[in-house]
Design goal:
The complex is a heterodimer.
Chain A (H helix, E strand, L loop, with lengths): L3 E4 L2 E5 L4 E7 L5 E7 L5 E6 L3 E5 L2 E6 L4 E6 L8 E8 L7 E2 L3 E6 L1
Parallel strand pairs in A: 2-11
Antiparallel strand pairs in A: 1-3, 3-8, 4-5, 4-9, 6-7, 7-8, 9-10, 9-11
Chain B lengths: L4 E3 L2 E4 L5 E6 L6 E7 L6 E7 L2 E5 L7 E4 L6 E5 L8 E8 L3 H7 L2 E2 L3 E5 L1
Parallel strand pairs in B: 2-11
Antiparallel strand pairs in B: 1-3, 3-8, 4-5, 4-9, 5-6, 7-8, 9-10, 9-11
The chains are: A mainly beta, B mainly beta.
Amino acid sequence: GIQVEQSPPDLILQEGANSTLRCNFSDSVNNLQWFHQNPWGQLINLFYIPSGTKQNGRLSATTVATERYSLLYISSSQTTDSGVYFCAVSMDSNYQLIWGAGTKLIIKP
Amino acid sequence: DTGVSQNPRHKITKRGQNVTFRCDPISEHNRLYWYRQTLGQGPEFLTYFQNEAQLEKSRLLSDRFSAERPKGSFSTLEIQRTEQGDSAMYLCASSLTDREELNNYGYTFGSGTRLTVV
């Protein structure tokens, strides 16, 4: 089945720093989403981005479907950005999301 | 609409007992998904409904697990004869079908039900 790899597994930054999280996937997908899981366990959808680039405030994401990777950019990090960031994909006509292992982000004040 | 609601938030049960969880999706969403997440891992797909029809079921879902979505509204997930390995967070999500709506909103997850089997 499709494999999803996220890097780095852990990231510790000072408040105000910028970061780039990467998601590689092993096969063609028609659905790619980025999620943030906060320290209380709530999963928040950040982007639905099977291709192209999107921006929402300090966050942006780019997916290059032909090269099978996606990047999540976080600028001017805040302590509330801490948590685990997951990339999840699904293939055409298959609605189950396959998840990466996540990147654990800690933003220090 | 306050989003996807799951009840209970926490459940502690003795091994061998049956448990049932409920998920109320966003009212206009016709798709509903169940996932399971263990500590330090990403969620794993369990099953998926479009309206009241259960269209896909993971091999992870043993015969002890059953899910329903009567009338295409709320859904229940039942685990019979619970085992310690069933301890996990059970997550429900919902979404629309239309690709443009998915593009704008993606999937919405509930807060989950944390099951502990002792």
